[in-house]
Each structure stands twice: as structure tokens, then as C-alpha cells.
Amino acid sequence: MTIKIKGMSCNHCVMAVTKALSGIEGLKDVKVDLAKGEADFRNDNSVDLKVIKSAVEKAGYEVG
Questions:
Q1: Measured distance CA(31)–CA(7) in Å, rounded
Q2: Can you give the three-state secondary structure of the chain, one letter per residue?
Q3: Nearest one of 58, 56, 60, 49 to 26, comparing CA atoms
Q4: pTM, whole model, 2 decimals?
Q5: Using CA atoms, how far apart are residues 19 and 6, in angstroms rounded to an integer?
Q6: Contacts 24+ apart (CB under 8 A), 20-25
Q7: Given a cut of 80, is residue 46 above it in pLDDT?
Q8: What is the distance between the alpha carbons of residues 14 and 9, in angstroms, rounded to a whole number?
Q9: What's the order of all strands across the beta sheet hosting 27-33?
Q10: pLDDT exceeds 80 at position 45
Q11: Among 27, 16, 19, 17, CA closest to 49
Q12: How many angstroms separate the CA atoms of 62 and 21, rounded?
């Protein structure tokens, strides 16, 4: 699954989003691309998109 992330501007941002998504049980192989403004991951346990969005927002960024 790939989602758009708004608000990232540096590698620190990439690390913050990666950490937020990696902390969600059920998400695997999290890869965040600063240039594309995207996060890509496998969602094995059908994690609700609301949970993913909330984690990204708590890290200070926006899904969309």
C-alpha cells in the first residue's frame, strides 16, 4: 500500500514518519520516499487507514 504524506522536507521528516508507521502492529517493510512524498508498506493485518493516518498526524505530518 502506498499513501501520500504532506509536510516532509528533510531526512529527519522521513525518519519520523518511518518510526511512526513502523510502530503500528501489522505494518511491515515501511519505506518512506522524501522526493515522492510517499510512504510504502505492507499491511498484513488489515490495519485501519484511520490508525495509519492518526500515527502520521501525531508525528506532525498529513496524509493526502
A1: 16
A2: CEEEEECCCCHHHHHHHHHHHHCCCCEEEEEEECCCCEEEEEECCCCCHHHHHHHHHHCCCEEC
A3: 49
A4: 0.93
A5: 16
A6: 20/55, 20/56, 20/58, 20/59, 21/52, 21/55, 21/56, 23/55, 24/51, 24/52, 24/55
A7: no
A8: 8
A9: 27-33, 38-43, 2-6, 62-63
A10: no
A11: 27
A12: 13
Q: For residues 63 and 59, give the distance between their C-alpha atoms in angstroms, rounded to a whole number.
A: 11
Determine the pLDDT at residue 44: 80
Give the dihedral sign, CA 11/14/20/21: negative
- Cell numbers at residue 47, please? 490495519
